User: Fold Ras-related protein Rab-20 from Hemibagrus guttatus.
Amino acid sequence: MLSSPRLTSGILGYTERKFKDTVSTVGGAFFLKQWGPYNISIWDTAGREQFHGLGSMYCRGAAAVILTYDMTSWQSYVELEDRFLSLTDTANADCIFAIVGNKADLTDSHAQPSDPEGEEENKPARMSVSSSSLQRKQVNREDAMALYARVLHYKGLDEKACLPAESMCFETSAKTGYNVDMLFETMFELVVPSILKKRNEGESSTVDLEAPSTGKSNKAGCCT
Assistant:
């Protein structure tokens, strides 16, 4: 995932219940996510400029790439295309792309945290977030969809034959977890069948990074 550090924290929040292991890397992080009978490999490149040169390595052979921008920063949206799109050249030819806006908690009251169910009676009523306290969204969903179309064009893919932009553009908050689960569950549901198809056709989709102690391990690859 070519992302800001704030989405990295969202990955940790999503995966801490289910990840088998977390391995820190220079310029990013590697995770294994248990999803049904499969282990999904996730590379997080952190997106920082000093690690830009490592991006193509992380994306090599990727079945899916999540490109992330800051919804409150138009500059982050511009840099996402200018600096990071070329790093996807090493991804699989049929790689699935998602365009993700982060920091929705700063622009949308619906992305704010809520009290856990059943605790409302024991806590003071939470004040709703007023519209005046929210920041202006600098990158709209329409902008994300336009970028998705440009990504497909850059990769030489037929837009009509690919997943629609409406399904592959997300607005999330790594801080509150808003839509983070939906993002990864959607990606996994799309990626796993594609990898299984390749496996049945005799192609190897990932490198086995660990030897399972017992039984047979099913692995799927996803560079985010």
In short: The two ends are 3 Å apart (CA to CA).
